[in-house]
């Protein structure tokens, strides 16, 4: 295998993780919870299984605030999330974003997903919700004109404060086109700017009946409205995305009228009480100030004596201040002198000079060590050269010996190895000669 194809375990698991997360960005899985664990971190770890297979799953602590029920072992659930790989163990697992009981169905799961998404964007945050006006000049009621909800709202509005005008915007509140009608009415109210508050009103129903008020486009239209919006959708047990985004959620249309419109009788009684309290407060304050003035006249007496006392107090405070200032300056000067001495001992120039001398000494030692090492190597080289020369064939030739070879370079060691007339080569210490064999002597 070529070197550039070898991967570490970490590189391989990262590659597998990338393939899993790209191939399965979001999945919806139904199964049974088993081996549920909740360690100190607060995250939920469990196994999602069916009759023939299982998969590890984790639900992190921040996502648990959207749970409609507490998960338990053996519970049939529907999970939506993404597939990932836990590299430390080499195990693939399901990172759960939304968990609902299996009977909740697709609408409930979609509701939970949208609720989580808008919550993360801050559309449900309390700080963005506006306070309803105490006494609105005009109210916009967006509802179906034929439903019982509009009748309940108008009946209570007449009892509370019938003088405040209510403008009804007739819309469809269920089925195809209902969402567009409501968004168009909200947009029209904001463009005209004639209403101080908007009320979304509808009677109760099933999750499917109320689904128009769980649409993301409507939720964003409510969030973008410049006019405060009150949601009065369904009965008290019904809850929609529009309720969460609206500035105020009323459990019923009747409660919405009570929240938006003040009670005429209560307002009159409250104003009367305020009038009495205001008059009493003014009279009490006037009496208090009169008593205070009289008391101060008795306390002050002759103002000139007070001026002399204040003058003495000022002189004493000035003397104390000058003494404290001088003492502080002296202490700071002593501290500065001590710090200057410390800085002088740690002067960077002195430390640099010392380091420079140390480097110079190390350089001298290095040069000396190199020279000694070079001398030792030269002596060893000369010794080895002498030994090599002593056993060198050239040294033997220099003592008068020679080497006899055939033309092909084969060394001749005996006269029996040549024959008459053969040309041989004799290698001497300096040069060599070619000879012809004319006589062969016996050994």
UniProtKB/TrEMBL annotation:
It is found in: Cytoplasm. GO terms for cellular component: cytoplasm; exodeoxyribonuclease VII complex. The keyword Repressor does not apply. Its EC number is 3.1.11.6. Keywords: Cytoplasm, Exonuclease, Hydrolase, Nuclease. The keyword GTP-binding does not apply. Pfam families: Exonuc_VII_L (PF02601), tRNA_anti_2 (PF13742). One of its GO terms (biological process) is DNA catabolic process. Residues 123-435 form the Exonuclease VII large subunit C-terminal domain. InterPro entries: Exonuc_VII_L, Exonuc_VII_lsu_C, OB-fold_nuc-bd_dom. It catalyses: Exonucleolytic cleavage in either 5'- to 3'- or 3'- to 5'-direction to yield nucleoside 5'-phosphates. GO terms for molecular function: exodeoxyribonuclease VII activity; nucleic acid binding. Residues 8-97 form the OB-fold nucleic acid binding domain. HAMAP family: Exonuc_7_L (MF_00378). Bidirectionally degrades single-stranded DNA into large acid-insoluble oligonucleotides, which are then degraded further into small acid-soluble oligonucleotides. Belongs to the XseA family. Heterooligomer composed of large and small subunits. This is Exodeoxyribonuclease 7 large subunit. It comes from Thiovibrio frasassiensis.
């Amino acid at each position: 295998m070529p070197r550039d194809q070898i991967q570490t375990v970490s590189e391989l698991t990262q590659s597998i993780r990338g393939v899993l997360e790209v191939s399965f960005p979001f999945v919806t899985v139904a199964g049974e919870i088993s081996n549920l664990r909740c360690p100190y971190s607060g995250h939920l770890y469990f196994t999602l299984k069916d009759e023939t297979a299982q998969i590890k799953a984790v639900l992190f602590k921040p996502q648990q605030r959207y749970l409609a029920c507490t998960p338990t072992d053996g519970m049939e659930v529907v999970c939506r999330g993404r597939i990932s790989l836990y590299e430390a163990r080499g195990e693939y697992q399901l990172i759960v974003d939304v968990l609902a009981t299996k009977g909740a169905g697709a609408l409930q799961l979609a509701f939970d997903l949208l609720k989580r998404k808008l919550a993360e964007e801050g559309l449900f945050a309390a700080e963005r919700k506006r306070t309803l006006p105490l006494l609105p000049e005009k109210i916009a009621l967006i509802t179906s004109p034929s439903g019982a909800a509009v009748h309940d709202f108008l009946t209570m509005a007449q009892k509370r404060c019938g003088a405040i005008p209510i403008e009804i915007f007739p819309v469809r509140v269920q089925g195809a086109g209902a969402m567009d009608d409501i968004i168009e009415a909200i947009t029209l109210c904001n463009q005209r700017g004639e209403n101080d508050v908007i009320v979304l009103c509808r009677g109760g129903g099933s999750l499917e009946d109320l689904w128009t008020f769980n649409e993301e486009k409507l939720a964003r239209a409510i969030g973008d409205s410049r006019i405060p919006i009150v949601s009065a959708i369904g009965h008290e047990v019904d809850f929609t995305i529009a309720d969460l985004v609206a500035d105020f959620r009323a459990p019923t249309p009747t409660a919405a009228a009570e929240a938006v419109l003040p009670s005429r009788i209560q307002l009159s009684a409250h104003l009367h009480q305020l009038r009495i309290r205001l008059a009493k407060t003014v009279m009490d304050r006037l009496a208090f100030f009169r008593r205070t003035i009289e008391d101060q006249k008795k306390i002050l007496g002759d103002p000139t004596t007070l001026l002399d006392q204040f003058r003495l107090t000022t002189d004493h405070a000035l003397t104390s201040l000058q003494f404290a200032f001088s003492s502080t300056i002296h202490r700071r000067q002593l501290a500065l002198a001590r710090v200057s001495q410390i800085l002088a001992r740690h002067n960077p120039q002195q430390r640099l000079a010392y380091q420079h001398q140390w480097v110079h000494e190390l350089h001298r030692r290095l040069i000396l060590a190199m020279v000694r090492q070079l001398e030792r190597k030269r002596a060893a080289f000369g010794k080895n050269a002498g030994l090599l020369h002593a056993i060198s064939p050239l040294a033997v030739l220099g003592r008068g010996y020679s080497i006899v070879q055939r033309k092909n370079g084969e060394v001749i060691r005996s006269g029996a190895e040549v024959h008459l007339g053969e040309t041989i080569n004799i290698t001497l210490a300096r040069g060599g000669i070619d000879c012809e064999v004319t006589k062969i002597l016996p050994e």
